[in-house]
Amino acid sequence: MTRRFKLLAAIATAGASVLVLGSDLAAPRAEALAMQAQAITAREKSQGAEAHPKLLEEFGGAYQVPQTSYVVQVGKGIAVQSGLGNARDDFTVTLLNSPVNNAFAIPGGYIYVTRQLMALMNDEAELAGVLGHEVGHVAARHSEKRQKAAQRNSIIGLLGQIGAAVLLGDSAAGQLGQQLFGTGSQLLTLKYSRKQEEEADDLGVRYLAQAGYDPQALSSMLASLAAQQAMDVRAQGGDARSVPEWASTHPDPARRVSRAATIARKFSGTTRNRDVFLTRLDGLLYGDDPKQGMVQGREFLHPELGLKFAVPQGFSMQNGTSAVTVNGQSAQAQFTLGSFNGDLARYVDQAFSALGGNQRIDYGQIQRTTVNGLPAAYATARVNANRQLVDVTVFAYQFAGNRAYHFVALTPAGQSGVFSPMYQSVRRLAGAEAAQIKPRRVRVVDVQRGDTLQRLASRMAYDDLKVERFMALNGLATNSSLVPGQKVKIVTY
């Protein structure tokens, strides 16, 4: 979480496309689409240039490490297969410093992959396949075809039933829905149709073959992503990064894996570049970046800001660059910061003003208290939106150095107390405790004679699901055999 909080509304109009496992799938017009690919237009270049810096802010910024130039090389190599541009310089490829399994492309030749998704890959062809799928969305102009639907549904999917009522309200509540939950830039793209997702898969497979890669790579990557998502669901309360079920309409992941494999059999290509890829991958940051704060189980810890808090049982967290989003079935919240002049009451008022936009939210009296030695202030407003009552709470804390942070929460009317344990959990992160927080990294090791899945998995830097994490990370099954000299990935401190 950085020191800024801004909704990336421009991303909706730029039409970002995201590779999320649960995306809808469907139809076969890839050959015609590939032949009809049109060059990047001036309008698309303008759209992409406008959205690019906002996307960097939302997804942790560009990750400038030795692996970056390699990702750029592979990304541009697969993107030129689309016919959108005639030269590699027509494309901008970015490795993002994000702990979320994600990849996307936007009009204008901008292509992105997160370091977390890269860590899940097992060879260069899978990296090319993921980016090829996303470029396929852009080549097919899918973003233009869903423009109106995206503008209508971008935030609704995030806020669930309560948030939908807020967003659809024609008052201050409308502004509220737009200010909250900036991670909508990720989730709004779950609205691709089944047909569009299958078209993007087909194009991605075609691009792989054209570039000489094994066209089965997209299928194997999707299988790894399915295994990782299943493992994340088991680890809820741990480091889960799965999309909440209520935010999407997921199809059967197995169907997408098998379909991509079937399409790939129509093409030829053999290059995987496994060892080259794994050698380049070694040392990559894995999971949260301590500089942006870390999610550990139900706790959020930020060693640089010197704070921590815990979410209630049954809630999950998504750590973004500008805020920590807390999700539940009927209640959501964000933890962020604002401008602070030493007056907490004024700070709370400013937070409500920012939510209300041009219309004032009547929040009643501001209450003052102390939480774990921290001066705090809070207030709750009841908003009537589309004949539904919603409680909006701002709970703020003053830290040393004239800093303040706050929660903004949406709950059904009368249920704001669901977050009371979270509000009371905020505390300073002591120096000794902060010093113990270390980043995790991917390390590539050679299998030794006598190594087993269990022995290698025991080296994973986690307290739970070590074997499951190791298998998902390496695309292995319980009956997979290991060969001495084979390269595998582990996650260590």
UniProtKB/TrEMBL annotation:
InterPro entries: LysM, LysM_dom_sf, Mito/Outer_Membr_Metalloprot, Peptidase_M48, TAT_signal
Residue span, LysM domain: 443-490
UniProt keywords, alphabetically: Hydrolase, Metal-binding, Metalloprotease, Protease, Signal, Zinc
Cofactor(s) the protein requires to work: Zn(2+)
GO cellular component: membrane
One GO MF term attached to the UniProt entry: metal ion binding
Example of a GO biological process term: proteolysis involved in protein catabolic process
Top-level lineage group: Bacteria
PROSITE patterns, alphabetized: LYSM, TAT
Protein name: Putative Zn-dependent protease
